[in-house]
Design goal:
124 residues, alpha+beta, Proliferating Cell Nuclear Antigen, four-stranded antiparallel beta sheet
């Protein structure tokens, strides 16, 4: 794994990610994740609809906020969420237009997986 400076760290329930990805997949091809102030968000915009899931520190397992945002392909997130949705805790490390680092334990803590997903860089 490459070493990246990903300032925001979010620990969230796997089922919360799966639910957000499933909803976003119905409206668009990409989902942005990030932090605004003290709120973690997952958002997708489509031609006719928008999905926005916001979670505060009280709704998350752990939250180390930083002002970040990155856009990711829902094709990859959807595939990943099938596994993530079954685990109790998922750690997300996010930077501004940096890859997303996803880590979780499985098999009652005997296994550990880490993924990195490249962001879709938006034209400015």
């Amino acid at each position: 794994m490459p070493t990246l400076d990903l300032p925001a760290r979010i620990v969230i329930r796997g089922e919360d990610i799966k639910r957000a990805v499933k909803a976003a997949d119905k409206v668009g091809d990409y989902m942005s994740m990030g932090v605004r102030g003290n709120v973690f968000f997952m958002e997708a915009d489509g031609d006719t609809d928008k999905v926005l899931v916001e979670m505060t520190k009280d709704q998350l397992i752990e939250f180390n906020p930083a002002e970040v945002r990155a856009l990711f392909s829902l094709d990859y997130l959807s595939d990943m969420s099938k596994t993530i949705g079954k685990v109790s805790e998922v750690t997300l490390n996010i930077g501004k237009d940096y890859p997303l680092k996803v880590a979780f334990k499985f098999a009652e803590g005997h296994g550990h997986a880490e993924y990195m997903m490249a962001p879709r860089v938006e034209a400015q």
